[in-house]
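INPUT
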Amino acid sequence: MTHWLDRFPGFAMLEPGIRDTLARAGRVVTVRQGTTIFGPGQPPDSLLLLLEGRVRVQQTTEAGREIVLYRVHAGESCVLTTACLLAFEDYTATGVAETELEAVSIPRATFDRAMAESSAFRQFVFTAYSRRITDLFLTVEEIAFARMDARLAAKLLELSDNAGSETLRATHGTLATELGTARESISRQMAEFVRRGWVEQRRGLIEIADPAALRDFAHANPV
Amino acid sequence: MTHWLDRFPGFAMLEPGIRDTLARAGRVVTVRQGTTIFGPGQPPDSLLLLLEGRVRVQQTTEAGREIVLYRVHAGESCVLTTACLLAFEDYTATGVAETELEAVSIPRATFDRAMAESSAFRQFVFTAYSRRITDLFLTVEEIAFARMDARLAAKLLELSDNAGSETLRATHGTLATELGTARESISRQMAEFVRRGWVEQRRGLIEIADPAALRDFAHANPV
DNA sequence: CGCCTTCGGTAACATCGTCACCGAACGCCG
DNA sequence: CGGCGTTCGGTGACGATGTTACCGAAGGCG
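OUTPUT
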């Protein structure tokens, strides 16, 4: 079994001293599926590094409407957590364990020390930040300009990749939340995809029948 | 005349040693209005701290459509620059000097050193990051869910604040870019605002006749 | 089986983006 | 001043999407 530190490519260049510090201070934890990792009024007290599983970060409006902002995958850190740790700012988004998680929890003091002492660690954290921000730029662009049919096609492929399967457990309602749109819109688009033979559906279940066609369609309608 | 370092509240707690380093290495520069500060294929080589002026950060699609992501104001740093400096990543957004700028340019080496040695400096940078990310969350939410009339009202008030005047130089086209929508949409909304007596317009010029009404309207339709 | 909850389908309407076109305002220059 | 080209704003028609209001079907559970 490799050490958890070796499961983060960004830590390959970590200085030996700080590596030991992290190895000693980090505690491997498991989190049950569906747990809210952080959210408004629920600030985290440590940095989470994901070994296994997936965290969904979403935003909820006053009116209760939701949209998925991004996902954190195994091998990444939850950058919003670091934002809070370092800047003491409140944020409005919620992080939910989409699967059962295996993660390493780095206490705040250790995090601060690693930031101070290790340029490799800083590099790791900033790369995560940078990726998040550029991702969000693309998200904004997509929401503002892309057509819903292309967005849905791309989302189905993304979820299929995440699940590692052509069969998805997803309702029209959850897809609507993914894309920040209305369920009815999803229903209409899905009906069209079914008509074209690209997908099949049963209640709560979506089978991607023709991934290549979906991919072509998504690529033919870039943001 | 106070030293430029004192014009950034986040630097109040700066350690004396690093303060001297920054003071010696930072060069005050001026940038002409309209200059592209950074953009795809035009990576920055230093961190910019804004003393005076305003930078507009916007995203452009393949098809040439544009949307304004956020603005950097005096007293802030351009966090996207730091993202690039620290993570060596490419980004897709463009930064434009919306006014003439007075800024302090911190060379990369000095920036790295300050990040390594000063917790106050790290705090400054992370606070900027954090604010950007939470801003972007709200932007996503707004684009996805808010009505265009409310968004336009809020944008007019924001631009009015920026300009420090009730009179704005803005065409329907630039407002459309601000909000990532179509000019026609803006024209129709503006006509409605004029009809209600909230604004007056001449070619390229908008006069906010009833800021309170606009504010009420914007607040009555939150995201 | 009966009941309740959730899910998906549909219609009617409002909003907004897209396309096409036009005239008005402005800048420039003869 | 007057002509001319460019930019700006207005408008109608249409398609795409969000909103509202239902309804029936599929499952879960007792």
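end of record. The beta strands of chain A are 27-31, 36-38, 46-52, 54-60, 66-73, 93-97, 101-107, 167-169, 199-202, 205-208.
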